[in-house]
Write a structure and sequence with these properties.
- The complex is a heterodimer of chains A (159) and B (255).
- Chain A is built from four helices and nine strands.
- With 159 residues, chain A is an alpha/beta fold.
- Chain A folds into two domains: 4-77, GMP Synthetase, Chain A, domain 3 (2-Layer Sandwich); 102-156, no CATH class.
- In chain A, the strands form three sheets. In chain A, strands 6-9-8-7 form a four-stranded mixed sheet.
- Chain B has one domain (4-220, 228-249): Ferritin (Up-down Bundle), CATH 1.20.1260.
- Chain B has helices at 9-33, 42-70, 74-79, 90-93, 99-121, 126-154, 158-175, 185-190, 197-214, 234-243, 245-249.
- The chains are: A alpha/beta (159), B mainly alpha (255).
Chain lengths: 159, 255
């Protein structure tokens, strides 16, 4: 019989294909796990609706949980409440910064903070930064320039 | 599979509204994607490609809700439907034009979405409210971007101002179609699923008028043309011919 603990552990090893240092659990994408005798239902929520990594993660969840021994695996998409970058765990924020991707500013749902263009350079920790582009190489990234170390960097977009 | 004939009147109205929401997003996404590799600067190329991808994702959420109700496969809807079956407004199917035209259209549409989504998110239909709540958050970034561009171009050089005004003069009459009620809309409003478009229109008009005029643009007097959502310009057929070409080469292909 598959246990709750084993399912969460397996999910903790499924990385975001575009940010391979953080897992679906780290990102707060997995909202609920329901383990029954006949199978497992995982509720997940999209970060950005148009993110192509979602399907990859969804398929990987199904594959891993089947391998774990779950007979039936259902990955259910839930939209409400909508995902927020505030759900990214503290441990994941450290991993993001080490990866070179500045973690998103915590905003508590405040639109003014979300759009404040504040950032911290993941290399030198500098906060004298200029937003160069509110969009980036993936749906969840924006581009900054650090005036302190004079290097460009990417930041996970607050949402 | 359920057919549209077995649905209640309320569900029929709901399906019509969902298809309109999805089609607007999908066609606008395609027009935005046409700038990929052609935008005036690299940063904007990336920006508009992102916006296109977002709108595509949003269309997907609406098509999924529509499919759950009407039993249609979203891929079939997008790639195998002729122009007459589409329910997008003409505003989004017009050719992409120049940068001022693209940014103004995006701004006018983003502002409409902002007003509409806020009310849909508060509605009583769980699926619609959930999707609207999700989309609304992402749209914050679009609205900021397009409104900043409208201001920058309108207050920029003489040429950018002229192009902005020309774009506004051309686009303004088309905005009226966004607010023409569908058949069955009263039912949706009565059920608390969607707001009355006249109310959305009032909110939208106040917001865009203020922004456009503070950017030095003259809002045209034209009341606009009242056309239904099944009426299209020849531009939609041209767009679909290109967008659907590959899928129609081999309808049975598995991707």
């Amino acid at each position: 019989m598959v246990t709750d603990k084993a399912v969460w552990a397996a999910l903790g090893e499924i990385m975001d294909p575009e940010i391979p240092v953080v897992s679906v659990v780290d990102l707060g994408i997995v909202r609920d796990v329901d383990v029954r005798t006949d199978g497992v239902t995982v509720s997940m929520t999209p970060t950005f609706a148009g993110c192509p990594a979602l399907d990859v993660m969804r398929e990987e969840i199904e594959r891993r949980l089947h391998r774990l021994g779950a007979a039936q695996v259902e990955v259910k998409m839930v939209l409400s409440p909508p995902w927020t970058s505030d759900w990214i765990t503290d441990a994941a924020r450290v991993k993001l910064a080490a990866f070179g991707l500045s973690p998103p500013t915590r905003h508590g749902g405040d639109t003014a903070i979300i759009l404040s263009e504040a950032g911290r350079c993941p290399r030198c920790g500098g906060t004298h930064v200029t937003l160069k582009n509110p969009f980036g190489s993936t749906r969840c990234r924006m581009m900054f320039y650090c005036e302190d170390c004079r290097e460009p960097f990417e930041q996970f977009k607050p949402l | 599979m359920k057919t549209i004939h077995t649905l209640s009147d309320l569900d029929v109205a709901l399906a019509a509204r969902l298809l309109a929401l999805a089609d607007d997003e999908l066609i606008l996404a395609h027009r935005a994607s046409e700038w990929t590799g052609h935008a005036p600067i690299l940063e904007e190329d990336i920006g508009l490609a992102n916006i296109a991808q977002d709108e595509l994702g949003h269309a997907g959420l609406w098509y999924d809700l529509y499919a759950a109700l009407a039993g249609s496969d979203p891929d079939r809807l997008v790639f195998f439907r002729d122009a007459g079956g589409w329910r997008n407004v003409q505003l989004v199917e017009l050719p992409k034009g120049d940068w001022a035209f693209t940014m103004l259209r995006q701004y006018l549409f983003d502002s409409y979405e902002a007003a509409l989504l806020e009310r849909l998110a508060e509605g009583r239909h769980e699926g619609i409210a959930g999707a609207a709540g999700k989309i609304r958050k992402e749209e914050l970034y679009h609205a900021r971007h397009s409104s900043a561009w409208v201001k920058r171009l309108a207050l920029g050089t003489e040429e950018s101002r002229r192009r902005s005004q020309d774009a506004l003069d051309l686009l303004w009459p088309y905005t009226r179609q966004l607010f023409i009620p569908h058949e069955g809309d009263e039912r949706l409003a009565a059920a608390g699923y969607a707001p009355r478009l006249a109310d959305v229109h009032d909110i939208w008009t106040a917001a865009v008028r203020s922004h456009l005029e503070s950017s030095g643009l003259r809002v045209p007097d034209s009341p606009g043309v009242a056309v239904r959502r099944d009426q299209h310009t020849p531009h939609l057929t041209e767009l679909l011919t290109e967008m659907q070409r590959v899928a129609r080469l081999d309808p049975e292909a598995i991707w």
